[in-house]
Amino acid sequence: MSTPLLEVKDLTVHRGDLEVLKALSFEVREGEVFGLLGPNGSGKSTTFSVLMGLLPSVSGSFLFNGQEVRGGSKELLRSMGIVFQSPSLDQLMSARENLEMTGRLYRLPRQKRKDRIEELLRFSDLIDRADERVANYSGGMKRRLELARSLIHDPKLLVMDEPTTGLDEGAFQRTWKRLLRLRSERGLSILLSTHRPEEAAFCDRIGFISDGKLVVCDTPNSLQKLVSGDHLNITLRDHPEEAARLIKDALNLDSIISDGQLKITAEEGHSLIPRIVELLPEGSVTSINMTRPHLGDVFLHLTGERLTEENT
Amino acid sequence: MKLADQWATISVLWGRDLSRFLRKPSRLIGAFLQPIIFWLMIGGGLTSTFKLSGAEGLNYEQYFFPGVVVMLVLFAAIFGTITVIEDRHEGFLQSVLIAPGSRSALVLGKALGVSSVGLIQAVAFLALAPLAGFGYMDINWLNLVMFLILGSVALSTFGFALAWWLDSSQAYHAIMSVILIPGWILSGAMFPINPDQGALSWIMKLNPMSYIVDGVRRSFYVEIPAGTTVSTSSLTDIIVVLAFTLFSLLWANVIVNRSK
């Protein structure tokens, strides 16, 4: 197997007396999208801060293209484009000026800088409002500009801390379309942190991080197979207890009654649906749907921890 | 540690502060009107009661004028560096921290930007010098500009180090009201040193800002009116202000490179 682009080895970080990262190790391969999935406070942002040299580590090392590098070393930073979780734009300046300042920080020659800025403004759909103050932009536009800005020096690895926080569904989907395009067009590798299962599903591989430790690391498909069974949600006109009893007697399946709905977890959910509808008195089922377990369920299964509070 | 990388960081931050200052008309108007109002109000109010033995001809508007010039530089340093606290966690400085330039370049770029803003305001206010009784041709501009540049670099790097170290706007506000503003009041900017007031006169002697005010004040006179300065010679002013500038630069560099 070829050398990974970035290897993080046994990273341990203390904050005061607290051990916030406990010998964390993972790797990002060339051209892949690798996600660290975990709830807030699990150590994702800390990992990135050490990588960028904004926090010291007690022990551990980074290898970039097989070469050992210090976190935050200039050669590492030159190879990475970074999208911070919190905004890092000058709100009083325009998109073009923000890009111009960053281009100058990386000493892109004048003509190359100009061309690159035009290209990035087009890529991020900001060309029409490029000279407007960033403060007037929508949340989605600001995130697009952050992404464009992180690409100005043509990095090999894009590092993004919770890149789609605060974006609505449409903007979320468009961001991912853009990111996947970047990966296929430029061969860019992406390392991101997220607490959203639907975001993790876009990754080639995911590392589950909980309490500063890597719990498991695999493809979304393989991880999903770790939790068996489909979820069936059945909405009934009335008497859910009666329906639960009928299902238990006939199919030997346990149900949970919540908000008047029956929730059943079982294998082969699609074949159960017609059987349940036939089993229950005619007209009593108003709707029935099936969902596959998502990565949030897998995370809960493996760590006993929920990714977000609203899932509880 | 390429020099070109350092210069890139310095010039971007320097230009950024200047352009942010110049593009806000409301801030510009405030920046130019506020010292004039301040000078006219306090100067006018106190001129009838102000008497300095040994310098009978000196009115308060004239005495206060150099103090207002230094106030401009100090306020620019305070307001220019308090923004560092937010900028560092939720602003553009985040992206400077991960750029090729060093953190020392970041300090220098920010200090030069903030100083330039203070200097522009000071120079604009200096246009009123004849109203205070100072002819343009009588001013020792070389000396004045030297003290203003050194003083503003010292105060802005001092402010930067404070902001980075405290890392909290509330704490910075507190220090501003108990140390920085009183420091300006006790620098000879508002009233001259009185050797009979033991503790107060000692604070004024130990206050580095006194020597910035003295250096600026001396630039307006061929012969300085007796009793108007804290220091006894121009050389003392230069030495203290240089030392203060070096101390602030050093402190800011240590603070910014230490905290990771």
Give an overview of the whole structure:
The complex is a heterodimer of chains A (312) and B (260). Chain A is an alpha/beta fold. Among the domains of chain A are: 6-90 and 155-224, 3-Layer(aba) Sandwich (Rossmann fold); 230-292, 2-Layer Sandwich (Alpha-Beta Plaits). Helix content of chain A is 35%, strand content 27%. Chain A has a six-stranded mixed beta sheet with strand order 6-7-8-3-9-10, sandwiched between helices. In chain A, β1 (6-15) and β2 form a beta hairpin. Chain A is globular. Chain B has helices at residues 3-22, 25-46, 60-90, 93-97, 103-126, 141-166, 169-189, 198-206, 208-218, 234-258. In chain B, α3 (60-90) runs antiparallel to α7, α6 (141-166) runs parallel beside α10 and α7 (169-189) packs across α8. Chain B has one domain (3-258). Chain B has ten helices and no strands. Chain B has 260 residues and is mostly helical. Helix content of chain B is 75%, strand content 0%. Chain A binds chain B through residues 52-56, 72, 74, 77-78, 80, 82, 84, 86-93, 98, 101-102, 104-107, 149, and chain B through 4-5, 8-9, 11-12, 16, 19-20, 23-24, 89-101, 260.
Chain-wise SSE layout:
The complex is a heterodimer of chains A (312) and B (260).
Chain A (H helix, E strand, L loop, with lengths): L5 E10 L2 E11 L4 E5 L6 H8 L7 E6 L2 E3 L4 H6 E4 L11 H11 L4 H14 L15 H12 L6 E5 L7 H18 L2 E6 L2 H4 L4 E6 L2 E6 L1 H5 L5 E7 L3 H12 L4 E3 L2 E6 L2 H11 L5 E7 L3 H9 L9
Parallel strand pairs in A: 3-8, 3-9, 6-7, 7-8
Antiparallel strand pairs in A: 1-2, 1-4, 4-5, 9-10, 11-13, 11-14, 12-13
Helix pairs in contact in A: 3-4
Chain B lengths: L2 H20 L2 H22 L13 H31 L2 H5 L5 H24 L14 H26 L2 H21 L8 H9 L1 H11 L15 H25 L2
Helix pairs in contact in B: 1-5, 2-3, 3-5, 3-6, 3-7, 3-9, 5-6, 5-10, 6-9, 6-10, 7-8, 7-9, 9-10
